[in-house]
Design a protein that fits this description.
Blueprint (H helix, E strand, L loop, with lengths): L22 H10 L4 E3 L7 H8 L1 H9 L7 E6 L6 E2 L9 E6 L1 H14 L5 E7 H4 L3 H4 L10 E7 L2 E6 L4 E8 L1 E7 L37 H5 L3 E6 L3 E4 L4 E6 L4 E8 L9 H11 L5 H16 L3 H4 L15 H15 L2
Parallel strand pairs: 3-7
Antiparallel strand pairs: 1-11, 2-4, 2-5, 5-6, 6-13, 7-12, 8-11, 8-13, 9-10, 9-12
Helix pairs in contact: 2-3
Length: 343
């Protein structure tokens, strides 16, 4: 018999809340925060939030009024999945992905609401400015000098496995309700991550079912829960998730809309750390142990522990990529890597 939990959310401490009076106060809070925080009512005055408070159907009509006539990518899960968009028993996805017009997708959601169909329907990470006219302009958060990617997420009741994102994230609930369960970065070992090259949405996810955790198969998940926080958000509320924090996300209403903003504090021309990890798996992981130890020391020397002593013996004008990267030197390095990987 497995040791399965029943309700992991009961008793978890809530994510702390902050009050921000204006965009300057939000900017200051984001610049100094190294942990998640909730802002109640941050986007309460959005027209989209107001439409959703009238009804889910009114929110969908408002969104449709701004859509462009382009195909949208939609994921549709199976009945009996409890809204969980995840793997099936063979480690393939338990949902199908289609292209459809937004009015067609919303018509299926309308029908499901009337019939009580629990099948999950999910439109994930849709670029607001690329797929809509005026929706972003009428419904957005002033993030000062940041240049965020603004995305909208729409769907029925869904459960998205715990994962993390490289950028910082401000997640704003516009319609419905959402629950976030968050874990610090270092808890990745206790979350039992799945494959990194076969994922539901591009990032490795926890293999633990948060609605029925199997503590026999995943005993270290108890340790993760000791560090967890939970945030239950109503329409109008926002949650700041620092870069690389793990978060499990649930849409709790029959129709839910989230608008989120991703931004990085590093230059856009820097590479993606996940690409470096993938390449290290390809080039380093399966080497003999003595060679792996050497390469660990090399990574420490050039990447993790690098300081002035690393390059002090090289003339400054000759240090090339060992100097602080610029857009130009990063471009040269990227071109070099592309040539090397294509051999």
């Amino acid at each position: 018999m497995t040791d399965r939990g029943t309700d992991i959310f009961a008793g978890l401490p809530p994510v702390p809340e902050r009050v921000v009076a204006d965009a300057a106060a939000l900017d200051a809070a984001l610049r100094t925060a190294d942990r998640p925080f909730v802002v109640r009512g941050l986007i309460a005055d959005w027209p989209l939030v107001q439409a959703g408070r009238r009804s889910a159907a009114a929110a969908r009509r408002y969104i449709l009024d701004h859509r462009r006539d382009v195909p949208f990518t939609v994921s549709v899960g199976a009945n009996g999945s409890d809204g969980r968009l995840f793997y099936d028993a063979a480690m393939a996805m338990n949902f199908a992905t289609f292209k459809a017009r937004l009015d067609e997708v919303f018509a299926h959601i309308d029908t499901g609401e009337r019939s009580g169909d629990p099948r999950p329907i999910y439109l994930a990470s849709i670029d607001m400015q690329g797929y809509f006219d005026g929706l972003h302009e009428a419904n957005h958060v002033d993030l000062g000098d940041r240049a965020p990617l603004a995305s909208i997420w729409m769907g029925t009741r869904t459960r998205i496995a715990a994962h993390n994102d490289v950028p910082d994230n401000l997640a704003c609930v516009a319609v419905g309700r959402r629950r976030f369960t968050l874990f610090p970065r270092e808890q990745f070992r206790n979350l039992y991550l799945g494959p990194i090259d076969n994922t539901p949405a591009g990032r490795a996810v926890s293999m633990v079912d948060f609605h029925a955790p199997d503590f026999t198969a995943h005993p270290k998940f108890r340790d993760a829960l000791r560090h967890a926080q939970v945030a239950e958000l109503e329409a109008g509320d926002a949650l700041y998730i620092p870069a690389m924090w793990w978060h499990h996300v649930e849409g709790l209403a029959t129709f839910n809309v989230l608008v989120n903003y991703w931004w990085r504090t590093t230059p856009r021309w820097l590479g993606q750390p996940q690409d470096a990890l993938n390449h290290a798996i390809l080039a380093v992981r399966d080497l003999p142990e003595d060679q792996k130890r050497h390469w660990r020391e090399m990574f420490d020397h050039y990447v993790f522990d690098n300081d002035e002593a690393t390059t002090a013996h090289i003339p400054e004008q000759a240090r090339s990529i060992l100097s602080t990267l610029t857009a130009e030197s990063a471009g040269r390095l990227r071109a070099f890597l592309l040539r090397a990987l294509s051999r």
